[in-house]
Write a structure and sequence with these properties.
Elements lengths: L17 E4 L1 H9 L3 E7 L4 H13 L3 E5 L1 H7 L9 E5 L10 H5 L6 E5 L5 H13 L4 E5 L8 H6 L9 E4 L2 H10 L3 E5 L7 H4 L5 E5 L8 H6 L2 E3 L12 H15 L5 H8 L1
Parallel strand pairs: 2-3, 5-6, 5-9, 6-7, 8-9, 8-10
Antiparallel strand pairs: 1-4, 2-4
Helix pairs in contact: 1-2, 5-10
Length: 269
């Protein structure tokens, strides 16, 4: 590791930079060649981080030892940083023609589709759940969608830099194209009496979530192969869209056997 340099936490808020923490997320963004610096927290396990620092140095990325105080000042308290942080250029939304490329070669991919989610905090939380539960990408309409701004990036806890977000001109047309490619399209609708146990699918799937207020638009709803709801036993009749997204993604991927628990447990110890 490089000679220790004392760093100030304000560095991660500099223009054009986003902080990504954790061994696996940092490895992912290093693979995208967008990293300017990697910070190693004082006292972090050199053995666990040896391969990561070797990759960074091979790309000409500065690897900097940072005091525990400065490192902790730069990282939110609820983030499992594992002693490493990368400063990276923010990822932009992808054009519509990137979708086939992102899906190419992926076995039984899951795509999250957000139909009119306009609150940046909800958008960021949905990105966080999508990345956590193994979605290949997130698809949003060109109009009437939240921007990928600072609020969304912060709420996503780094997921905005890890999972591609594809902006499409016509959402219904995009969903029909996915269906032609073998995707089973499931929309979330509170009035449905069908649960994921009846609508799950082992092949390629798209989960479509509607807007915070009105839910799915009519054209989007008509394209869906099935509409599902989350069964609830309490007095509350509905969930925030980002919460519902997390619940459905977990349930769906668990039924499909797509959750890699071995990696999750290994990287949190």
């Amino acid at each position: 590791m490089s000679q220790h340099r004392r760093r100030q936490s304000k560095k991660q808020d500099g223009p054009g930079q986003v902080a990504i923490v954790g061994i696996h997320p940092v490895r992912v963004v290093l693979g995208q060649a967008r990293v300017s610096e990697v910070w190693i927290r004082e006292g972090a396990s050199e053995h666990r981080l040896r391969d990561l620092t070797a990759i960074a140095k091979s790309q000409g990325v500065h690897v900097i030892d940072v005091s525990s105080r400065d490192f902790d000042d730069a990282v939110s308290g609820d983030m499992n940083h594992q002693g490493v942080m990368a400063l990276t250029e923010p990822r932009d939304m992808e054009p519509e023609n990137a979708l086939p490329v992102l899906l190419d070669g992926i076995e039984n991919p899951l795509v999250l589709v957000l139909d009119g989610v306009t609150d940046p905090h909800n958008f960021g939380a949905c990105l966080r759940s999508a990345e956590a539960f193994g979605a290949v990408c997130v698809v949003v309409p060109k109009d009437n969608t939240a921007p990928l701004n600072q609020a969304a990036r912060k709420t996503s806890s780094g997921a905005s830099e890890l999972i591609p977000v594809v902006k499409v001109t016509n959402l219904a047309r995009c969903l029909r194209g996915l269906q032609q490619d073998g995707f089973w399209v499931v929309g979330a609708a509170g009035e449905s009496t069908v649960g994921l146990d009846q609508a799950s699918h082992s092949g390629p799937m798209a989960l479509v979530m509607g807007s915070e207020g009105a839910g799915l638009r009519r054209l989007t709803r008509e394209v869906c192969d099935a509409l599902v709801a989350i069964p609830m036993s309490g007095h509350i009749e509905s969930l925030n869209v980002s919460v519902a997204t997390g619940v459905l993604l977990y349930d769906l991927q668990n039924r499909r056997g797509a959750l890699d628990t071995s990696r999750a447990y290994e990287e949190r110890v």
